[in-house]
Amino acid sequence: MDEQKRSEEKNLTTDQKGSQTKNKNQDEKFDMSAIDRTFTNYKRGQMFDGVVVIKREDGAIFNIGGKNDAFLPRTEVDDYDNLKIGDRFKVVITNSKNQEDMLEVSKSMADGIVLATQNANRLKLGSKFSFVVTDADRTGLYSKLGEYSVFVPIGEISHSTHDVKKTIGRQFEAMATEINKEEKHIIASIKLLEDKVKETNETLFWNSIFINKVVRGKVKKILSYGAFVDVGGVDCFIHISNMSYNRIGNPDEVIKEGQEYNFKVIEVDRENKKVALSLKALQESPRLLAIKELHVGAIYKGTVVKLLQFGAIIKLENGASGLLYIKNATEANNKQIYEIVKLDQKVEVEVLSKDEENERVSFKLISVC
After folding, report:
1. Element (H, E) at 238
2. CATH number of residue 67's parent domain
3. 354 is in which domain, residue-wise?
């Protein structure tokens, strides 16, 4: 019995030793795998937490774990003089290796990603945000907002976008239509935001527009008889006859597509959503300028251009015209105007009065030439 017991203890001891050896080998194998996993394959654009381990004049040595330290240029830290060994923050890899065989990292880029991620976390459905297109294909536009991916489906791109490849690198505003905060993914619509902005602008426009209001507008399209003008997102129209006091053959003699001008509103049709504009209404007419040159009591030479029942229209040599009443042409009470002056006849008249606001002048006949 004692011999059998000793044999069992011996066998048990041998099994235990084998088990301990096996466990030791497994532990060693596990430990090596854990170490290997710390040797991260770093890629440009990756963001890591790390700590400053050495501070130099040109920058800091920054440990982000793994087998390689990184180099942080001093230009990447706003207040480098106050940077201390042991400071912890996020950085983004900008270069795989520098001349010292170290990864190069950026703090400012990481700060931007963190801020953009915080802004993305605050987004709600229907919120407006800005982004820069990083890629585009037949399915839509792609971008990043911090750690979030952004996607605009092809059907939700701007009304004015025809070639999606030309959007790469451009900044757009869009409305968030789906937000997955767990997967950090946003689906957005540019078109929906444009429609909402247009609707808001149109409401503001029709609530504030009135005749004689001076507005700023951009010429969208020139036609032979006029032009369409964008005023606050609403299409208005200016006829060629309202562009200049001078006779013109084509609108582009006065205005150019894509240029902005001040216009005066001369008609408002709210029911049919139409607004007529004028350029010449903001200018002094040649008639008014000619009237301003006249002096009450002075005598000028002119021509009879029209006969009326109660008098005649006289046009002066400087272009000003006014009315010669019968009572100011003769002292006789029973004469008609055609008995006193003839059409196209040269006369001398005295300016009795002038009304610049209403562009009116009255004359007294001095002599017939």
Report:
1. strand 234-239
2. 2.40.50.140
3. 286-368
